[in-house]
Batch of 3 targets.
Target 1
Amino acid sequence: MKLNSDVILKVSALTKSVKTEAKTLDILYPMDLTVVAGDSLAIVGASGSGKSTLLSIIAGLDLPSSGEVFLKNQPLHQLNEEQRSAVRAKHVGFIFQQFLLINSLTALENIMLPAELAGMANPEQLARELLAKVDLTDRAEHFPSQLSGGEQQRVAIARAFISKPDILFADEPTGNLDTKTGSHIADLLFEINKQQGTTLILVTHDPKLAARCQRQVIMESGQLSEANVAPVIAETVVTEAVVTKPVVTKPMATEPATANPVVAESSATKQPLSESL
């Protein structure tokens, strides 16, 4: 199949299932998806709905059980890992929730690495330009352990864009950050994405982040839909919080006992997509 010139990603009748000793688990049910070059798309839904599994497949990190996935006219569903890796290196960028920086490399070196592996000219100059865009010029020689979470994610964003990918996949890019830092990271992500004209596909639980994308699709129990997005996003935010039993504090000599309800965010973290640069 040859895609229209404006279509960068096309998914047809895609499914994913996993066989266990007892039975076959269906993770993704037959679904279709078409993404036009330059679009931004948010995949939203509850934890365990299949969002990250879908992202892994359309990014060429995993294979579907059946169906077709075309990325830049490349039939990912027919390619082996080495061939898919070559497609990723040429066309794809990644941003992960866990940052996945290389601890032994400085911020500058982490950003330079994809450009060096791709044989691009002047990788250091390109990396320094991106460091300036994410406002980390003075952190160029710092290692990941010397950077805050927000700074590490800014390095990860710069690294993702240095090779000027045709399409960028982001898995919960603000998931490990506080609200203020997450908002700043989102601003940078969309700003650089617009400057480079990159297609953006992201998985998120953040309704504000999802709303900034041109399109939003819902993943529910392994099925994909573009209808009634706003209510599902709102429900996802509510159900992500787990309310525990009240904690009774020991009274002071002159104070009555009080019950303080504790709201704890869900501590379950998704397995990050793994990719060697």
Target 2
Amino acid sequence: MSNYLSDDGTFINSLIGEGSCFKGDISLKGLLRIDGDFKGTISEGGKVLIGKSGRAEAVVTAGTVVVGGVLKGNVTATEKVVILSTGMVIGNIEAPRLLVEDGVILNGSCTIRENSTVAEERPARSAGSFMFSAAKKREMESVSPWTK
């Protein structure tokens, strides 16, 4: 699980251990690891790890979110969201990067948006490179095996 976190010296400064239950709001700057049960909101940047035995019913706003257990709620990340093969997310995800391992359960919508820092460093992309003309779309649909 830690392979998905950058080694920037961040240490686990908050832990909800296996067998523990916490309800409320957490505002963090460091790293929160959830191996027990959590219900509430998580905000203020930081990093959130939901371990294999962790269960969270929460609205999560963080820098990086790694899910190895169960997360029911919406996630907004400024860096990335990682869902491990043991993970389940029931809710919507919004992040600049999304990594999903084989075998996850995901029920919700995903919106991948560049954050302002990344967008400033990249050259602008033209919308034409991502969209087909209406004529090209009709042509593709006429030969597609899924439309028949």
Target 3
Amino acid sequence: MNIFRFIGDMTHLVSILVLLLKIYATKSCSGQPLTVMKMYSALFLSDLLKDSGTVCSSLLDSIFWAFSIYLEAVAILPQLVLLQRSGNVDNLAGQYIFFLGAYRAFYILNWIYRYFTEDHFSRWIACVSGLVQTALYADFFYYYFISWKNNSKLKLPA
């Protein structure tokens, strides 16, 4: 069992639970752009379709897998832009994005681990897309860490 992948999957689950808690607590989806929800819906749909078992399933598997990887890399971008424009980030939204970023960071550790332990590990599309996604989170992580260290409300520069 790869511990990095397990921890990454668990932090992804926690991020989803935090999002559901935010929606339940506020009785609203405000702060969650519809574009992000559409992108994640397309991501999960493409993951489901890639296992459809059709005649040319090998080609479709490759296409849907690559599409889902590329989409996941940029799906958080509208959320980050919305938070940056508003300046203030509520606690649950900040934790949601933090856990999504932690999920991606553990997946990078997973790839490093697999590169050194598996023969012919060559998922370069996933690695490059993951690095792009992590770079998008880097600015947010910096301000999240500063606000946590100073015990203040998370504010992003406009």
